[in-house]
Write a structure and sequence with these properties.
It is built from seven helices and two strands. By secondary structure, it is mainly alpha-helical. Strands 1-2 form a two-stranded antiparallel ribbon.
Length: about 160
């Protein structure tokens, strides 16, 4: 069964990072959507999928910018995409998959392990928003402390 992630969702997640012009000229959205939709936990770990997503992002941004990694955002502001930006884009993209998972114990265990292993803000956000009932009060407070201590406020203030 395909994971219910749409091309529109992927485009919305990447638009702040890459801009509409880049996204309309590059097939990255369809490639990422296909990767997320095809994910099967029995074939591939979340870490492996994230590595593939990040690799696809680096490859496409490098190829479609001629190697200089500069894109024009919607406000006509040119920015250079860093490796940290690529990692954040990959995490935001993975968040679409995490959002689509039903809040059951097996998904809680996988997301919690993944969040701690790779310090994924997207996984922590979904744990915070959808899986609170699986945490003890102390564990939930630890999650909030971890989000605040590991990640920059601009990345979480909209939902924490």
């Amino acid at each position: 069964m395909a994971i219910p992630v749409s091309q529109e969702d992927v485009a919305l997640a990447l638009k702040p990072w890459l801009g509409s012009t880049f996204l309309s000229a590059c097939p990255i959205v369809s490639g990422l959507t296909q990767k997320l939709q095809a994910h099967a936990p029995y074939r591939q770990t979340l870490e492996d999928l994230r590595d593939e997503v990040e690799s696809l992002l680096i490859t496409h941004v490098n190829r479609f910018t001629g190697g200089d990694m500069r894109v024009m955002l919607d406000g006509y502001h040119a920015v250079r995409i860093s490796l940290q930006d690529i990692a954040w884009m990959a995490d935001d993209t993975m968040g679409l998959l995490f959002d689509s998972l039903p809040p059951i114990s097996v998904n809680f265990q996988k997301l919690n392990e993944y969040a701690l292993k790779v310090e994924s803000l997207a996984a922590m956000r979904v744990l915070y928003q959808k899986y609170r009932r699986f945490f003890t009060e102390e564990q939930f407070r630890f999650l909030v402390r971890m989000i605040r201590s590991v990640h920059q406020p601009f990345r979480y203030t909209a939902w924490l």
